[in-house]
């Protein structure tokens, strides 16, 4: 029972990384922008957050630095694809390549650094409940922030005028422009908000999930987050559930190794990426279902003068 509770707790922690990043990418895609630079933004945010905590000792400043780094890189990406109409896919890939290289260069002197001892955040009384306490109520606050972000994004997209405008920009930017909405500025705001969330996820990796800095430590989580938005058919609640599913698959490898299951570690390490491929293959068998849920203008440039 204790091992199951620990597995559930680890699943929530691992899923939080994917959930926060995927929610950010979902905001981008709801506005019609595809950002393949999530991996690079998360890496830069991871080193930005880690370096900030090393120099200040304040974890929350580290999260803020990660969000700022993600938003800054997203703003550059947005300027290129929204105003200069560069190809979204090529620009996103370039951002990932840049982020991978820059984070490795900037993080050289931080490889051996150690963070201050982490503060524990058990919820009084609830943390002492057998099984549920260790599994659910001794998590880092960011785990609960991811859940709150999901609820907040559902409310924003489907219960507010601003959310309706954002979705209209993703469905038909020409119509939104004809009604007088500043399509380009709305898209830039969405891209920067998404970048900030990707940055928050990257900082969470280096500050909480694996509290250290190692080159390439995001290890494909940005790509899984991209796949997760499609897997969830651009619905925030499904994003959260899918993130926990992938988080569970990720942590299952360590759980099985701890139980002494005689399976090669390389095969277990493949599980999260294999699950991603399987899910994408299953989804691609029904392209109509994807088209019905996908924002109509996703990945398409917008020319206001046309």
From TrEMBL:
The chain crosses the membrane at residues 6-26, 33-54, 60-84, 91-111, 141-158, 188-207, 213-232, 239-258, 270-290. One of its GO terms (cellular component) is plasma membrane. It holds the Pfam family BPD_transp_2. It is a multi-pass membrane protein. Keywords: Cell membrane, Membrane, Transmembrane, Transmembrane helix. One of its GO terms (molecular function) is transmembrane transporter activity. It is found in: Cell membrane. This is Nucleoside ABC transporter membrane protein. It comes from Polaromonas naphthalenivorans (strain CJ2).
């Amino acid at each position: 029972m204790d091992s199951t509770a620990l597995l559930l707790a680890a699943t929530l922690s691992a899923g939080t990384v994917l959930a926060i990043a995927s929610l950010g990418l979902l905001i981008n895609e709801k506005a019609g922008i595809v950002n393949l630079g999530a991996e690079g933004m998360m890496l830069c945010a991871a080193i930005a957050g880690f370096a900030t905590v090393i120099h200040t000792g304040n974890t929350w400043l580290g999260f803020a630095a990660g969000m700022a780094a993600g938003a800054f890189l997203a703003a550059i990406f947005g300027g290129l694809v929204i105003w200069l109409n560069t190809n979204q896919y090529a620009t996103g890939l370039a951002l990932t390549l840049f982020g991978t290289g820059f984070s490795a260069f900037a993080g050289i002197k931080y490889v051996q650094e150690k963070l201050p001892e982490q503060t524990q955040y058990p919820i009084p009384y609830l943390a002492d409940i057998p099984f549920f306490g260790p599994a659910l109520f001794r998590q880092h606050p960011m785990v609960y922030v991811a859940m709150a972000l999901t609820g907040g994004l559902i409310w924003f997209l489907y219960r507010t005028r601003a959310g309706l405008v954002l979705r209209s920009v993703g469905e038909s930017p020409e119509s939104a422009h004809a009604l007088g909405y500043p399509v380009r500025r709305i898209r830039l705001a969405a891209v920067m908000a998404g970048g900030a969330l990707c940055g928050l996820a990257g900082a969470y990796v280096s500050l909480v999930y694996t509290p250290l800095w190692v080159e390439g430590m995001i290890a494909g989580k940005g790509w899984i987050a991209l796949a997760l938005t499609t897997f969830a058919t651009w619905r925030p609640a499904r994003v959260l559930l899918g993130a926990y599913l992938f988080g569970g698959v990720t942590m299952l490898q360590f759980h099985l190794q701890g139980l002494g299951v005689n399976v090669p570690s390389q095969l277990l390490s493949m599980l999260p990426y294999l699950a991603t491929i399987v899910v994408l293959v299953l989804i691609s068998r029904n392209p109509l279902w994807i088209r019905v849920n996908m924002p109509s203008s996703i990945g398409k440039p917008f020319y206001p003068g046309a």
